[in-house]
Amino acid sequence: MRMYDLPDARGHFGPYGGVFVSETLISALDELREAYARCRKDPDFIAEFEYELKHYVGRPSPVYHARRWSEHFGGAQVYLKREDLNHTGAHKINNVIGQALLARNMGKPRVIAETGAGQHGVATATIAARYGMECVVYMGSEDIKRQEQNVFRMKLLGASVVPVESGSKTLKDALNEAMRDWVTNVENTFYIIGTVAGPHPYPMMVRDFQSVIGREAKQQMPEMAGRQPDAILACVGGGSNAMGIFYPYISDKAVRLIGVEAAGHGLESGKHAATLCAGKAGVLHGNRTYLLQDENGQIIETHSISAGLDYPGVGPEHAWLKDSGRAEYVAATDDEALQAFHDLCRLEGIIPALESSHALAYAAKMAPRMKKDQILLVNLSGRGDKDMHTVAEKSGIKF
Amino acid sequence: MSRIAATFARLKKEGKKALIPFITAGDPDPGLAVPLMHALVEGGADVIELGVPFSDPMADGPVIQRSSERALKQGVSLRSVIGYVTEFRGTNKTTPVVLFGYANPIEAMGAERFADAVKAADADGVLVVDYPPEEAHKLVEMLDARALDTIFLLAPTTSDARLKQVATLGRGYLYYVSLKGVTGAANIDLADVTRRLDRIRCFTALPVGVGFGIRDAQTAQRIAAVADAVVIGSRLVQEIENSAHDQITANVRAFMSGVREAMDVVGKVEAAT
Question: For a Cys-Cys bond, which of A207, B40, B46, B213 suits B188, CB 3.0-4.6 Å?
């Protein structure tokens, strides 16, 4: 069997990925690619990355058997990979540490980031404080309104938060604006992209930094459950937590890989963010991938209860995994995610992020139809503290 | 000879430099698209870069972003932009038109259908901001087969190896982006531009246009002294944005004439010395 070795030298995953940017960004991406190629093989770089993951993030994150939740289904045993226990509350920090170390290695004292829900922004602000770097975070003005607490957290950590007023004033526009900053200030600035999207080498690099999740799980599952799971589930917005847990399992064909997108009010409503389930291939943000777009190729606005999944594109490697059939992509609605959110709170004492609740929701659909000795592993990519306002509002409660 | 090549050949004979305005097609409304193209020509345009609006114009600054949003709000699509060219050609058969935009609207239409439509409309060239040479082979092939020019961007940071690659793939002219950053950003450094143009000309005989950061007749004049063409985008779009609706074409014509006049002084000075 041929080893899975994507992307190719120019960042292609089959027809997806690549470098679709203006000439003005090419040299910056070349510089980044070379620096990353050097660092990923450098034992000192790897050792420092691992040191930070252990002592600053608190890795390895545990795999936890959700016994009561599993009993509630009466079917498969559900295990959770606890990325919610990481410092800053989500998987985002793994990647940010990797890229910040790379920035330092490249001699760039200023880091910038885009953020939707604010999790990646908070992670970037955190690491910038930790390493004494200047930090600017771009955030859509609509998202700023929805995520005031995270904006405050970023400011506490010393970052500047720049509201983005263009387009739909959400994550995709923040990404556009961060790219514009980068192309203008490329000499002293490193752009820390938060997901497995963007031009090569970002999708590969972010996947590599996040793949610690899957590597740990692969080691932990035999210890915890006596074997590898039958299926792994992860939510997919841009897709970094899913790529992180899927990647080490790609060649392990016995394990089903299931990405769960945000179906919002339902796929038929048009108000969703299920790019792989309902989108079409195109070019955005530096790569070819599935996109939610109209018949004229304009990007359309998305909807999800979780801001972190509210993105009209998806990482190009997911596009490839879908087309090649190696991974399956499904969707869960706002309501299904909320139900899973509440169940996990009440039955396991764990408050999950609304993003991760989409993966939980699909596990809740699968588990009752499976046998008791079958195993599902859900990537619990983040904790739900940030979602208190959204959930309270849904229940008609105001703080 | 293509219309673009013929235009540069004629200008060379006349001792002039090309003036290339950029507008976003359908900004501020579709009804003005074709009248504005004619106004540009009356003001002295040699080639028109016609912007195709896109929802996510990553390489553009706020001025062109807003123009794109205005056009999109009025339902302007790649198909309508191609329609404006057809209409423009009803009365103007000489001024080259280059469609200027982002990849996704073209991908949505399909490269082959797009190339056919551009040919049928009798446009002359295509510049896709987010198709660097590595990702542009298919489109170049389609356009080449129809005798249409693919225009490429060059940046201050473009390496010699890439210059060579772009020189091989590029047709019509090359567009040197004189600034780091997005469209409409700060002022340009003339000495630096001159140095870069010398370097670019080691690799290509194609005419080289300079754009990004050209905001007035004076700067255009200084750039015209060293480049083959001067591209003006954000400043012109700003003129459209700031004009009362019934004054737009007149103001655009007047602004263009001012630039044209300043640029032609360069030709005369060069011809006299």
Answer: B213
